[in-house]
């Protein structure tokens, strides 16, 4: 009886749930919208899944290798995966990767910024177009071609520079040269600088081109010369963009493989001098050793790859922090 | 020290397009002169020839003479950069340097002109912000970015920046067109105070504003789209708005235009 009474009672008007209200506010969704939403959401999820899969794979294989390692993975200057138990460490690779990238950045960033400023604020339009196009082409050259060029052209022509550096800056200790083939960190750094120059230039050029006209006019009207306009209105506006551009370049320099492997004559130790051959980088080490590596050797190389991955993440995070700290003063809220 | 502006036979081009033709006028020191006229009549272009900002636009060039007291701004060997240090400008949209603090915005012009001691800079910054009626609103946050201020405050910051270098002339290109009525009133009051020290030229689309702030008013017009703009007449503001000598001026100010 009780149940029938309840069913007889007038049914309460169903209150629309929050989700339903939202859907109503959005209006009827058309099939095109639904398909596009599904595609874009699917792509986003796929990206996360791929990232997680890569990270998971690297971590799993790396943990196997590190558990077998008989030496300290971070401080050992040795890479002997054939020994039983194996002994290997990444100290040399960390050093080589960071040093070659620092050299590349120190050379490439100032030149790239100068080129970008020239193209956006000095060059006549009929000149800036073709130059920008040539720089785009430079970015499209495969890295193995840079490597061959570096080994066959750059290396034989470095002797003069090396001699000069040894004569005048040898006393610093980092520019001494014992006369070996110039297949060293400095040559690698110079080659990497040439390789990352186009990407830094292009991104910086885009950023500088977007410097707001009215801010430049404000500087001009105060009696600023062209250089002062650039210093007051263009460079501060583009600073965070140049940092992002540099990080893109740094990412490429850290991970560059073939060009480094072709030019560097690697050894598994650290040279105080940038001019003496030796050292190695993560990517170069993986490329040189992967083909002949045993199962354990491959896992060890993967472990080193994971470290490179983490270094790249840290570099990107640091760049984001620098950009965020300057946000209040950035041109974005002009 | 405010200076007199004496323009004779001035014609300005954008590439091959003649924007304004054969303009002559005199602007007295320590006065406010308003430029009015329909859009495209060349009043802003003319204003920008007075501090050589016109030639910044690609293809911009000028014929004729602009004398600042006795010095020809377009004379041989005159550096446009030094002209702009004598003739300051305030723009239509407030444009403080977004990467600089309020203090640095006002000090920017001084720093261009040479090195100053910190105490001297602070003194000039305070004086300029007071001169722009902004000091009381920002004195506690001089190190905050200028872009955090309201539109009207930003425009007064730009005025402070312009007057900090003690220009002889202050050009204003529709300085209130992006502002609300209260901020507009603040700027208009400020113009009344600034004319004690500077020669002021203001372009405005608002005829009541021209009537309120200016001593003399110049009316510009163009015969048709694509034709160069011309100066129709310049006279005491009171005359222009009560009894102009040219029929086109009367048509324009009474809204019977075109």
From TrEMBL, chain A:
ABC transmembrane type-1 domain residues: 94-319
GO function term, MF aspect, one: phosphate transmembrane transporter activity
Subcellular location: Cell membrane
Bilayer disposition of the protein: Multi-pass membrane protein
One biological process term in Gene Ontology: phosphate ion transport
Cellular component, GO, one term: plasma membrane
Assigned protein family: Belongs to the binding-protein-dependent transport system permease family. CysTW subfamily.
Protein name, entry field: Phosphate transport system permease protein
Top-level taxonomy: Bacteria, Bacillati, Actinomycetota, Actinomycetes, Kitasatosporales
Automatic annotation (TrEMBL), chain B:
One Gene Ontology cellular component annotation held by this UniProt entry: membrane
Keywords assigned: ATP-binding, Nucleotide-binding, Translocase, Transport
Record Gene3D superfamilies: P-loop containing nucleotide triphosphate hydrolases
GO biological process annotation, one example: phosphate ion transmembrane transport
Lineage, top ranks: Bacteria, Bacillati, Actinomycetota, Actinomycetes, Kitasatosporales
Name of the protein described by the UniProt record: Phosphate ABC transporter ATP-binding protein
GO molecular function, one term: ATP hydrolysis activity
PROSITE patterns given in the database record: ABC_TRANSPORTER_1, ABC_TRANSPORTER_2
Bilayer-spanning residue ranges: none
